[in-house]
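Please review the protein record below. Let me know how this chain folds according to its tokens.
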Amino acid sequence: MPAIAVRPFRRTDRDQLTDLVNTHVAAVVPGVSVSVNTVLGDLERQPGEFITDPWVAERATLVAELRGHVVAGAHLLRYRADAEVGESYRDAGEIDWFVCRPPASFLPDAADAGHLMRACLALLARWNVRVRYADGALPAPVVYGLPRNWPHVRAVYEAAGFRHVGDTEVILLARVADLPPDEPGEDVTFLRTVGECGTRFTAYTDGSARGFIEVDTALARPERLTRAAGLADIGNLHIEPAAHDTGLEERLLAHAADWLRLCGVDRLAAYEPETDRSMLEKLTRCGFRELTRTDRGWEHRPG
């Protein structure tokens, strides 16, 4: 039986590694795939992570190869130990993402991703970091944490001693056509502005802001993604306490949906903590369906 070889990523691996990444993306969110340039860019820098990316001191990408075929890949980060780095990241090492082939009849010996995981742990040990984290943050929208759709990756993490110590979020998706229709009324006015995480629509009554929603329609930039047209996500949704249970969430979604139709967007993603049952119920009533749940915050705690 040929042995699995673990080695640093080479540029000639780019197509096979991208195929492996897209296999995992496709299990989480429909109709999205990333380009080779997106994957290569992510290995060098993550400009979307404008807070944490400047803290990274070292990056490494490893692959596992079997008979000339890349069967697993991992991207690791080492964060600086100086005072500019956030306390939880200071002197930390992280498996930013880990992908591997699940068991298959045509490649039965490729399912042992333990070879690559052992190499990851050895690298983290050489880095001599204070704490070891793990995630599944592939360079694609809606893919972060460790999605429940990757039981084979979860098994590798848990066998290596990583434990889920963070929160669980529900990822939802709605067809824009299924969102509530916009019903203009004199009691609520809307103002469209630039928001923190996209285009913001703020609802006003009696001259006071009662809530807002932000939608990011820039997920499908052609230089980053090869297939994500028509997808946007909710960056923020906030309702003032005095406006709770007044139907304002539905009106904000309806107003945003009208704008999304003008943008040619037909799908809208949302993310909520699984503990926020009230908001999950409201989103479900508005046409959202659950795609998956993802577990954020994995830490190496062997034994």
